[in-house]
């Protein structure tokens, strides 16, 4: 089944198309995208519709920054109904939690993780397509659109410490520097934004706990068929919280805006439990990180929420029948 996204980025593309001197309707017809996506922001379409539109435009114009140009035009209202909640949350940290909780209302292709290291934090974005990792144009659009959320909480004059991309650098970085207002690095091991850790907890001057509650009630009234299963929502929350050492059921429930008891009940209705999901999530992430030699075992332990490497090694041995180093050695053969 194709990964779905809201059609909002396609609407934004149609508005930006004249800047790069292309006919949006012609591009849509060329790649087979419903022309309604030029004007209707809340349709759900395959992610590859956006990828194909961006790719076709880049081929036709030779302009590598089309995704960045579209993302730079993003506003809070472009997050759709989810903006009603995001605008009234107390901090950016709360906003990222709700951003993941209601992921099914925005995109199935973007996962956000926050990794904190002293005074700095990395807002890491994993952008996928039906073909695997999304191309650089789509990633740049996604990271640039994130700036609308960051500026809402931190002010229009705020700039990140650094922006990093995994893809290679274009020949001209003028637009990147203008959009982000900071150093932009390419060829990195992740896509994301480096900020001060304190930024995550900076109070939102527009926060209103009552309006946030009303917004949640509205979002929760969306048809059940569009909601992410609790199992999937827990996995996504764990991926966000594990690097912070927060993996207790109470912490995950708080992240999802519910209670531990309610969360356990919903998981039981789906035929699983929190402990099993935690172990499954850690297992998948452990294999991913250990398969990449850039991650020392101690860092993998931290990313999986273990207090120290020895605790991780004991858990891994019980799970896989080998130590992390042994597993890495065998996997590399």
Task: Walk me through what this model shows.
By secondary structure, the protein is an alpha+beta fold. It folds into two domains: 68-201, no CATH class; 229-333, Orthogonal Bundle (Arc Repressor Mutant, subunit A), CATH 1.10.10.60. It is built from 16 helices and eight strands. Strands 3, 4, 5, 6, 7 and 8 form a six-stranded mixed sheet that branches. The longest helix is centred in the middle third of the chain and has 19 residues, at 136-154. The chain is globular. The mean pLDDT is 88.
Oligomer: single chain
State the helicity in percent bands: 40-55%
Tell me, what's the shape?
globular
Number of strands: 8
SS strand fraction: 5-15%
Q: Ends: how far apart? A: 33 Å
* Global Rg: 20 Å
Q: Output the number of helix runs.
A: 16
- Residue stretches low in confidence (pLDDT < 50, at least 5 long) are none
- Biggest sheet statistics: 6 strands, mixed
Q: Taking all residues together, what is the mean pLDDT?
A: 88
Tell me the structural class.
alpha+beta
Q: Could you state the order of secondary-structure elements as H and E?
A: EHHEHHHHEEEHEHEEHHHHHHHH
Tally of individual domains: 2
Quick overview:
This protein has 333 residues and is α+β, with helices and mostly antiparallel strands.
SSE blueprint and pairings:
Blueprint: E1 4-6, H1 8-16, H2 24-31, E2 44-46, H3 47-61, H4 66-72, H5 82-86, H6 92-101, E3 110-117, E4 120-129, E5 132-133, H7 136-154, E6 162-164, H8 174-180, E7 183-185, E8 192-196, H9 209-220, H10 230-241, H11 249-255, H12 260-269, H13 274-290, H14 297-303, H15 309-320, H16 324-331
Helix pairs in contact: 1-4, 2-3, 4-7, 10-11, 10-13, 11-12, 14-15
InterPro entries: AraC-type_N, Homeodomain-like_sf, HTH_AraC
GO molecular function, one term: DNA-binding transcription factor activity
Keywords: DNA-binding, Transcription, Transcription regulation
